[in-house]
Amino acid sequence: MRRRSFLALLGLAWLAGCAKLAGPPVAALPAPIALRENPLFIAGADRDLLWNELAATIEQFGFRIEREEQVRQIGDVVIEGRLETFPVDSPTLFEPWRRGASPGYERLESTLQSIRRRALVRVIPSSGGYLVEVVVLKELEDVNRPEHSTIGESTFRHDGTLVRPEEMAKEGGPITLGWIPLGRDLALEQEILADLQSRLGEIATPLVSSP
Fold first, then answer.
1. Domain extents for the chain?
2. Mean pLDDT computed over every residue of the chain
3. Mean pLDDT across 152-161
């Protein structure tokens, strides 16, 4: 998979060094995980305020909004709102200032492989407020060969995949064939909901603690 191989090796060396410095693990009871319901119920919020805070939250995590349809009222009917973002390259271990991935495994994965994320949000009118559903989808880049591989540079695929020879000659590296879905990033969804809840304060529903 295409990714900065040199940085990946540096990352592994850094993690190994940190593990040695940390010493033997200390036994401790696992902390309870606090989860927010998804969709998150927002009680009695002004729909324009809710939408503005939602857009600000999404942009705070490094996403760029591709299209949005705000909550609107047509006659006596309130139509749900939808927001979609462009796919964004996920931050690595070497980009701690970016908020587009959770610490730990998610950032390590994005360091070693080319991962991108995009967010889909629905704001659904409900009795007494709105339900905000946040979905973050992960995708893995699919390339025709590893980044620094020299094997098969002059060969052509015969599996029906369209690869233009002039593009290979021009780029001098792997060609992106597509993106492989990896499912949802539940941890980042929780971070986005937490940020939105903090912006809206008391009108958002309280936490739901996992057993």
1. 5-24+36-148+159-205
2. 78
3. 52
